[in-house]
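User: Fold this; tokens only.

Assistant: Input:
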Amino acid sequence: MDEVVDLEEPIWRYFKPSRFHDFMTTGELYFASARQFQDPFEGAVAVLPPGFPVDPRYTEREGSERAFEELRRLTKISCWHRASYESDAMWQLYAGAWKGVAIRTTPGRIAKAAKPFRLNPEYGQEDLWAGYVRYVDLLKERLRVSMLDRFWYKHMAFSWEREFRLAISLRMAEEYGVKVPEDGIKVQFDVSQLVDRIFIGPSLGEDGVKVVRQAAEAAGLGGHVRMSSMLGSPRYV
């Protein structure tokens, strides 16, 4: 979190068409609870090798481990991909097997586009944290960082993600008696400020392309739509 962020670096988010349409219509992005991610190492400080014997002294959860599990519930996260170009892997994984949509933006645009978020209208505005995820070989190293900082470190096996992360911690809100959702929250952004380009996935059907273009037009972003470069014609000679 203390690393200087390049405000002009391209970052990407890949959507299935329905979620893209919702975003264009509402300006709301879903921030998932850290407990919702498939990554089993999310927030881990170390990884034991497979088959490593369990020390009976650690069969019971320590208080700090229980506290971190609660922090995972209270920390809501939005994940982005750092790249100068669109990614075939990201199309496959996060956009319905090439049948989705991607938006390109920059950290600077995100900072300008983010609207104040309050979990409860009577409670104060929550801070939006942003930064690069750092990848560490947790088989060899043990993290010694604060609980909140752990969300900006991941096991080296996930380094292909090249993740830029946005997060909101609702720990203080809960301490003040505000009810925090078990899963994610929706955070509002100014769509026109946020979006630099919209890319249509290479396998999205004709009807889907029409829906994407209509949603972009309705948001005043029709001129920002591009087709995926993967639809180009290859030449071999």
